[in-house]
Amino acid sequence: MSCRFLIAACLLLLGAACAAEHDKPQIAIVFEAKESNGAEDLRKGADRARDAASVDIFTAEPTAKALTAGSDLDGYDLVFIDGSAEGLALSAAEIAQLSQSTRLVVVNPDGALQGNVDIAHHADIPVYWANRSVENDAALIRYLASAVTGAEARKSAAEPVVYPRQGFYHPSASGLFNDLDGYLAWYGERSDGVRYDAAKPAVGLSSYIVYYRHENTAALDLLISEIEAQGGVAVTLLRTGAADFTPFMRDGQPVIDVLLNDSERLNVRDREAGVDQIRQLGVPVLQSIPFAKGSVEDYRASPGGLAPEMTSRVVDAEWEGQFEPLAIAGVDPASSTRQYIPMEDQIEWRVERALAWAKLRRLNNADKRVVFTYWSEAGGKSDVGGDPDDFLDVPGSFQRVLAELNAAGYSLGDAPLPTAEQLAERMSREASNVGNWSQGELAKRAADGSAALVPLSQYLSWYNLLPVERRREIEAVWGPPPGKTMVSRTPDGQSVILIPRIEFGNILIAPHPMWGYLEDEEVLMSKDALPPHHQYLAFFLWLQNEWEADAWVSKFSNIVLQPGKSQGPLADDHIGIILGGLPHIHPERLGASGALSNKRKGMALTPGWYNIVTPSDASETVGELRALLNRYDGAPDAQKAGFDAAIRREVQASGLSRGLEIDVDAAELDVLATAAGDYIDELDASNMPWGGKILGDAPQGEAMSAMVAGMLGNDLDAVLEEKTSTVRAVARRLVEAVVDDGQSPRDAVQAVLKQSAPDVEAVLALAPAYVDALNTAPREIEAILAALDAEWIEPGPMGEPFRKPDTLPPGRILYNFDVRRVPTPEAEDIGATQAEALIDAYRAENDGAYPDKLAIVLFSADIARTNGVSEAQAMRLLGARFKRNWRGEVIGVELIPREELGRPRVDILITTSGTYRDHYQDKVELITEAARLAGESPEADNPVAKAMSAAIDELKASGASDKDARLLAAARVFSPRPAPHQASVSGQVRRATWR
Fold first, then answer.
1. C-alpha–C-alpha distance, residues 527 and 983, integer Å
2. Backbone angle region of 782, left / alpha / beta, with phi > 0 → left and psi within -120 to 50 → alpha
3. Percentage of residues in the chain with pLDDT exceeding 70?
């Protein structure tokens, strides 16, 4: 008798026993709720099959049961799990236990998640689940109860209804169309509305067919009617499961100009397969997201918008090259089955922006009007160019971009194109922002024609159309129009707002409007995010209404500092008003934090570019001192005193004395030598930009070999440590031999090390590939032109190529890491090690005493660079660790028992940047939960518990309720209030009256 037969027989015997014990089988169903296929939808099917089984539903929804470590799934007669569920709170050990104690049915099995019921013998089960509807859900439950548990069936399970995998949809049609030709034939001949016309811009829509099956298409229907109302045609493809976009193609070309996607990952099981579908389609894919976590009113009231509850959905789409996340519907609070209510103004804006991208795709280059913006924040001629963090040569980059646009057929006028030096001069003297302290310069520019002038009457005609609430917010800070910023009068006394700019035919180069903090002393004291001042608003309204820009490319923008939601803005908030329908392209430095706010709040497409970064070459500048210190370290103790004068003299001569926090003349020699050696090592490990980067430029000559040496970095250093005492210098010579001299790794090792070293050769073998990757720098400009042609652009990871070479080639639109897996296990190990080292260092300086509280600052750039080391450090200080499911996703936290921790817990205080607050709220909640658990742990030496107890007593004494007192006492993570990104201190210190 086979093992499979024995297992089946045992399960049937178990089923008979269960049927006898219970009136009907007890079934648990565990899955990930989708927008229109959640717990309440399944409950409707379960109610219809209540005579066959008693069903408990486990999802993350409030209306379902939560799956936790304490969930007693062993007690069910059958457990049904969808293996494709994200964030499933089951460990491999728990899955194995279930397989031993009950029937485990798994559809979409994945890795460790496998069932003990052979689906091959129950072929209808995955068919029911893949075609979910009320009818199929009820039939599935009946089937599980009778065919799997062996219970007596009071009513047979109906055959599964198989819906088409995909079909074309229009609300005016009587049903779905199987193919594009049938759909377009109907669309072109319809008599009850807009007809299909290939000359009109075509917007594709991709959605799940389940909305159609559950009659939940209100948002989709409004999108289609709005596309037609704004002059386009809609081609809507409904699908089940993984995306297949080939039906959008005809004769190898897409029939659509842009795609709106409202579904989740295009292929849950194979991300690259989903990306490949968009790659073949080749058009921009914009996010059109139903807000599944609340009503329309909930969304409007939320400070984060799509964050934090739906951040993972935004991230998943970014990995596939999708962008512009906009919410277009909310859940009907009166419905128990998650019916969606459309957000009419959001849908109107979603369509406006989609058609703007479609227009870019159809326009001839000669007809496209494009504006480029750059940094000019301080209102003076000397503060012009790029964001100081970027080290971008903006005039040089503009010169390169203008030449490429000219070659691509854009209309740049008849005048010769300027040199980078001429552009820099004009940007500074003609097209910089001007502070309101320089009224003479403002009057000069108003009179000489160098700036565009917006008369107050014209501005008011635009301004008065804005929502009353937005105008009220603007005037509360900046006063009535036209305000004071960039305002002057013409010789005839007319009040005008100045728009500095340089025009080359259809190309406009202009300073981005100033944020405004330095323009008004009262504004410096603001604790809230600043609304746009009048010139800020006038600039963007002028671009849209008068200059009629087709696209905006920002080399610098501060638009994300405006009030509004951190992810998924509203059409009627300040971001929505400023952007309107203007496609936004923001080339982003790869070493930045993925342009999170520009992507998710500023609606930007973000092709990446890289800085040329090289090691700081400390070995060359302090070479003599290093050699002296090496000789000192190797000298007998009796001879070390003879090095005293030479070491002190060389420390002074090299300039290291300015960086050492000790008295070079008075310090003991051993202390000085150790400090100097450590400081040199720190300098060696650092890096710096190789001048200002011009977009499209790859490193040349010495810069190339230096950057490649830095990219090989620690890997090369590690294999050289036992072979030389001057690791960095030798590493640089080896790379130069391969990159500059064209030697093979073997020949280079032999020439420099005078020995065979296969481990060194293996690392050096990467150098040519890194050179090739760096030489793809022209993609940085090619990507801008591709974006202006409304082509889909390949996605790529963010990060500094110097540390993460896989971020090359540039020119891909950036995506963030998978936040669900951060901190990674590796980062958690590093963070734990750092926390213990920090505690040991404190004890060494404080007679063995343990610290009571330590402070940590969390930045978005840091979590992007380290994958969560600082968060893991905070967790370890508290004596807690992350819990992960079988996928490796972080699903919670737990305390480390005191006896296992081996020391007292350490209380923490954490502050975050504004960007971290906006995009990593899930990490804040994890740390907060760990602090709460630590505060409730009854240990005599627990400073967290002591601090919380004292805070609770103090808060209650001041009148707080017990609930509020406990909530506030547990707070450990602080940030700027929602919307602002700073406390204005940096601006206030520049005031003459600062004290």
1. 6
2. alpha
3. 92
